[in-house]
Amino acid sequence: MLTGQQYLDSLNDGRKIYLRGELVDNVATHPAFRPTIEDAAAGYDRYFQPGEDATAPYYAVSRSVEDLRELEEVQLTWDMLSTSTATGINALMTAASRMRGDLPEYADRAMKWLEDAKKRDIRCVQTITDAKGDRSLSAGKQDDPDAYVRIVERRSDGVVIRGAKLHITSAAVAHELLVMPTKRMKPGEEDYAITCAVPVNAPGVKIVNVSYAPPAEHDWREYPASALIGTTEGFVIFDDVFVPTERVFLDGQTEHSADFAHSLGLWERLGSLGHYVELADTIVGLAQLISEANGTTKIPHIKEKISGLIVYATMLRASLEAAISGAMFTPEGWATPNELYTNAAKFYAASEYANVIRDLHDIGGGSTLTAPALADLENPETGSLVAKYMTAMPGVSAEQRIRLFHAIRDFTADGVGAWQLVTMLQAGGGLYAQRVVATKHYDMEHARTLGFKVAGITAP
Length: 460
Ligand SMILES: Cc1cc2nc3c(=O)[nH]c(=O)nc-3n(C[C@H](O)[C@H](O)[C@H](O)COP(=O)(O)OP(=O)(O)OC[C@H]3O[C@@H](n4cnc5c(N)ncnc54)[C@H](O)[C@@H]3O)c2cc1C
What we know:
Low-confidence stretches: none
Mean pLDDT: 95
Radius of gyration: 24 Å
Structural class: alpha+beta
Strand content: 5-15%
Number of helices: 15
Strand order of the largest sheet: 2-1-8-9-5-4
Bound molecules: flavin-adenine dinucleotide
Helix content: 40-55%
């Protein structure tokens, strides 16, 4: 296994990482990547054990409902890069299981790479979302054939790929990119049915980064949530990248291209659901604390809104439990989340989130956005006046109330909060994708039978 320091050293490997128009010399020492990297290095140190056989828990396989539940719980304490690694690995295993019957050679290759990745103790990211060009056209019908990542050359020892994958969380600080087709490819689109593992420093890989971190000049006390959670999103370009055969897990079999997107969607959505349960409880807590600080706890519409938030948080917790306890099992005995409950729950969490935030902002009031900085409280000229007018209730200091406002703004409308708002909808696929999968797994026959029964019609 690697230590945190060995992880940091491993990132200085010639990778081509860009940020705001500049090539980054070394991501491990660049301030924009520091929060993610420090978290990931701490994740390495937390589980480090010497010895040949030691492996990180991110590579553990769930074989029971209890394992799955334990994974969900412990994941909440992991850094984003390690969580992404675990999700990608589970997705690859699930997809390998689904294609094993038809493509045993590819399934074996994927499992061999996984064993090797575990030994090397690397971190990888899920690299699936293509640039996609015109959304109304499929991969093979685009004006620019590179709108979806594709094979541009097949050689005796591997393939050359070209294209771009967008919004790839933590790509710049990972070791490998797990490249998968974004959706089902059709006959004739064989060059787009490509799954493979590509080292971040492979020649031809360029990653343009976007960061939602607070501006360079800031006081972290005004960004308490962003100080805890943060990463960069990578715009990953494959400019004719050679991938050796042993790293290719699908090459042209369009009928299996969706196995990867579906498997990844399932694991990604379960992982985010666990996170959303905690997020929803945090929102309830912030709403309650700010109403106590504002003196509004007894006002009927505030009480009603807080109880609405409680119902949201509880529904998420209950559906996470259903997604885990209704686990499905692969022929190998690996536990996977329940497709119907996971997708329906992720859809509900995401589609209601904007309303939940609306209620929190309504409960908080305008200072959610305009509360003065703590530095204004410390300024001898303004401090006592800011304190006087920011105090609302006995027992709650002006500083405490200001900190709560900053936390609500940062957690829901700025910094990491702005990221969360869009991520909730898009990461793991948009709302439409979850609706499609939920519909596919819903017991429609049972519903039809009930419909006939209540209508007094004998089912044909
Ligand atoms: C912060 C963040 C992190 C992310 N992390 C990752 C990551 O680590 N790895 C990764 O691979 N991806 C990641 N994603 C990408 C995410 O999965 C996509 O954003 C999502 O699938 C939507 O794709 P898109 O952004 O291209 O939007 P679009 O596909 O353009 O979608 C926009 C809207 O159009 C609809 N739409 C588009 N085409 C169709 C169609 N043919 N039929 C029906 N409706 C359609 C969509 O449903 C949606 O409502 C991340 C996204 C975000 C915002």
